């Protein structure tokens, strides 16, 4: 099995997974993200405990890439504090923009690393980053 098929499998698994797709009871923040170019719409809900992102979920619709990226991001970010979360968002966006290419630096992204080569498909970049930009706004 080559790397691409492992990536594809992970993306498909997350895009159909429901474990992060739900509404939170009494979220502290609800931030909407929209990608007009392919109709992705997500609504991110966050629950903070002080500085810690205690819980996070999303609802919405869109292509497999946007949905998988959102789900993978939630798995990665949940339990982190705001500062750690922002660093991860910057790292992810840096990876997509090819500003960060060092695999060791990118290890912190865990499963989100599967989106590294999406920069080769410019039309899909917005799909991959919508959730991350939305999270950035939510934390602000």
Give an account of the 3D structure.
The structure is a single chain. It is built from five helices and three strands, in the order αβββαααα. With 140 residues, it is α+β, with helices and mostly antiparallel strands. The protein has a single domain, classed as Sufe protein. Chain: A (Alpha-Beta Complex), CATH 3.90.1010. It has a three-stranded antiparallel β-sheet with strand order 1-2-3, covered by helices on one side. The longest helix is centred in the last third of the chain and has 18 residues, at 122-139. The protein is globular. The N and C termini lie far apart (41 Å). 34% of the residues are buried.
Structure summarized in a few sentences:
This protein is α+β, with helices and mostly antiparallel strands. It has helices at 3-16, 64-77, 82-96, 103-106, 122-139; strands at residues 29-35, 40-49, 52-61.
